[in-house]
Design a protein that fits this description.
Strand content: 25-35%
Largest sheet: 4 strands, antiparallel
Order of helices and strands: EEEEEEH
Mean pLDDT: 85
Low-confidence stretches: none
Radius of gyration: 32 Å
Strand order of the largest sheet: 2-1-3-5
Number of domains: 2
Number of strands: 6
Length: about 120
Amino acid sequence: MPDGSESAIQDGAVSITDRDRKVSLSGKTGLDPLCFQDVPEGDYNISVAVPQGYNPTTSLNTPLQLKGGDKSTLDFGAQISGAAVQPTITDGIRSPLLGIAGALLVLGGIGLGVYVYLLRRSIP
């Protein structure tokens, strides 16, 4: 579940299995919270798999005991992994403005140097 300005993480996997392995439910996370209805009472293990490109920020497994009529909300967290953030590469696309500015700066420096040199020569 997102907190504040966070958005829901899509394409995560959630699995609910009871200890006797008689109940096994699964689903995918999306924009809306994932809800399992009419789950029989018992002791369960809730497991989450974060989508590719994410790192978990909370435990991925949680035990849960359900009794008749119980409603439970579990929150799991993940963040985008550093590997998922790709740098932008601009092959062959370069702006000439930086080169022009550099050339003007160099020419201005040469012109100033020539001006100072000529000024010193003309002073007796």
